[in-house]
Specification:
alpha+beta, globular, Immunoglobulin-like
């Protein structure tokens, strides 16, 4: 009887460890959204809209043929890799982002515009399955300063749920921090 209990306990521990180690991690995240950049009052220009992805895994993530399919539309080129612990910016106007921020890890352009009032953004894999979903908003309890003041929306809790307002905050600097961690 004791041997059966030991085997049972051992089996429970092994199963728990296997399930715990096999659980999916939130390795790829939408880490920053500039949905309503500060506008030039003369031109009403919002070309600095962007979404930033972050790969928190220690290995590269293959994004080839993945696509943003809701909110904006953009399909990654074949063989697009996001390196370990690296950022990639998807921009409405990649040249404007590169010139403004002095970064090179930018792709695009995406079609459509990020909704200034909030919306759902989906990232789908090459098979069409939704990999990431974020629904942001510009009203309380969501941070409101990213709505036209020049701040971006930053995913501050990598272990948090991306659909929860408490997982997001306004960027610490005006114009956000595309392509790098928020200071």
């Amino acid at each position: 009887m004791i041997d059966q209990r030991r085997w049972y306990c051992l089996w429970v521990v092994v199963c728990a460890l296997v399930l715990w180690s096999a659980r999916p991690s939130l390795a790829l995240v939408i880490s920053e959204i500039m949905y309503h950049p500060a506008e030039d009052p003369l031109t009403q220009d919002e070309t600095l809209e962007f979404i930033e992805l972050y790969n928190e895994r220690p290995v590269s993530e293959e994004l080839g043929k993945w696509a943003f399919t809701n909110g904006i539309e953009y399909t990654f080129e074949p063989n697009t890799l996001l390196g370990p612990r690296q950022y990639l910016v998807i921009a409405y106007d990649p040249n404007a982002i590169k010139a403004t921020y002095g970064i090179t890890n930018v792709v695009g352009p995406f079609t459509g515009r990020l909704d200034n009032d909030g919306e759902r953004i989906d990232l789908s894999n090459a098979s069409g399955g939704i990999v990431l979903t974020v629904r942001y908003n510009d009203t309380d309890p969501w941070p409101t300063s990213p709505d036209g003041t020049g701040h971006s929306l930053i995913f501050t809790k990598l272990s948090g749920a991306p659909e929860e307002a408490s997982s997001w905050s306004a960027s610490t600097t005006i114009d956000g921090s595309p392509g790098k961690a928020d200071p």
